[in-house]
Structures are given as structure tokens and as C-alpha cells.
Amino acid sequence: MSKRYKQLVEKIDNTKVYSVSDASALVKELKSAKFDETVEIALNLNVDPRHADQMVRGAIVLPHGTGKTVRVAVFAKGAKADEALAAGADIVGTDDLVQQIKDGIFNFDVVVAAPDCMGLVGQIGRILGPKGLMPNPKTGTVTPDVATAVANVKGGQVAFRVDKKGNIHAGIGKVSFEADKIAENLSAFVGAINKHKPATAKGRYIKNAALSLTMSPAVKLDIAALLDIR
């Protein structure tokens, strides 16, 4: 453990759990990198994603955005293509976009698709899927309203999906954000997770939760308080 990291650890009281507001203020004190570190939330849920009815997946537009510039590619044609461009899409196409992806050119971070283009997208599903780029109705990235989808992604939408061990990780802002904005983004994200609680999930839904920066130790969050967020 480096001297720098030890100094950060000493700022955290590991005998306590922190409220949303206290944790959001504390992580700002943990900044040590020269770049604008991402504020990251890590949750462990009491679900078994091997069962389809316990898969937790969705998306939330954070009230203060993520602080990241997101490049959006859209599969759309005709009027929908025009709407996507007007909403700020970085790339819009059909067959040409398919070919670009087959050629290994990925100058985008998120893919949105109009429903009538999903046949095309299916041709490259094996390429997009492993990269986490496959559009999905559950995350709002397959929709006839491509303009709203682009606006949401550009405006700070965060997609989430529980992994096979019940974990969810996401970036919910930047350390340069004011503490209250970090807290509001954190509450919005946890609220979305709570709303997606499977009906078949038993026991305490959120088992563990922590807030951290890209280069910092983690701050344990008060689970009881998180479970009350709606």
C-alpha cells in the first residue's frame, strides 16, 4: 500500500457506515489523482441472476449527468435518422454503420436503434454484445423515439445490469461535482435499483454498498438508508 493510499484510508472511519450526504462529502476529500476522477457506486444485491425473474437491468438519467462526454451511434433511416442527428447523435447510419463495426471501427460509446433497424443490428450482435454495446429495449436504446434516447444518453443516462455474482457497478458523476449533486445522483441511481427489485427476491435486497473514486479506497454506505430511497 502506497503512502498516498494509506493517507486516504486514514480519512475513512471503517467502524461506521455513511449516509448518502456524508459519503458524498467524504469522497471529495479522497481526491488524489491529477485528473477529474469518476465517482463510482458498487452494490451487491441479494438476487440470483441465473434466474430470469431475478435479473436486475435498466437505465436511469441522472439529475446532474455523469460529467462524461458520450458519443452516440444510431441505427435509423429516413425521418428517424434526421431526428437522431438533430438530437445530437454523433453517427447515424444503416448498412454503412454495420460495415464500419465489422471493420472494427468503434468511435462511439453507446448504440441506439430504431426498431425497424434491429434486423441490421442483429448481423453484428456477436460483435456488439461482448462489448456491452448491444441496444436493448430495457435500457431505452431500442425505441421508435430515437431523439429522446439520444438526448437521454447525452444528458447523463446510466445503464445498469447485475452480474452473475449479484454486483452492480456504475459511474455516477465526477469528483469535481459539488457534494450535494453527487448525493442527488447517488440517490437517483439507488432509487432506480430499488424500483427494479424482482418480486421473487427474498431477504435484504441490497447486501453491501460502497462509494469510491477511480483511485481511492471505498466508503461503506448505510444499507438501511439506501433501502428507503424511492
Question: What this model shows, in words?
Answer:
- The chain has a four-stranded antiparallel β-sheet with strand order 7-1-8-9. Strands 4-3-5 form a three-stranded parallel β-sheet, sandwiched between helices.
- It contains nine helices and nine strands.
- With 230 residues, it is α/β, with parallel strands linked by helices.
- The longest helix is centred in the last third of the chain and has 17 residues, at 179-195.
- The chain is globular.
- The mean pLDDT is 95.
- The chain has helices spanning 3-9, 20-28, 79-86, 95-102, 118-122, 125-128, 146-154, 179-195, 223-227, and strands at residues 38-45, 57-61, 72-75, 91-93, 110-113, 157-161, 167-174, 206-213, 219-220.
- Helix 2 crosses helix 8 (179-195) and helix 3 packs parallel to helix 7 (146-154).
Number of E strands: 9
Q: What is the alpha-carbon Rg in Å?
A: 19 Å
Class from helix and strand fractions:
alpha/beta
**Amino- and carboxy-terminal Cα gap:** 38 Å
Strand order, largest beta sheet? 7-1-8-9
Uncertain spans: none
Quote the beta fraction.
15-25%
Shape: globular
What is the subunit organization of this protein?
single chain
Q: What is the H-and-E element order?
A: HHEEEHEHEHHHEEHEEH
The total count of helices amounts to 9
Q: Which range best describes the helical content: under 10%, 10-25%, 25-40%, 40-55%, 55-70% or over 70%?
A: 25-40%
Please give the largest β-sheet: 4 strands, antiparallel
Key structural traits:
single chain, 230 residues, alpha/beta, 4-stranded antiparallel β-sheet, 3-stranded parallel β-sheet, 9 helices, 9 strands, 31% helix, 20% strand
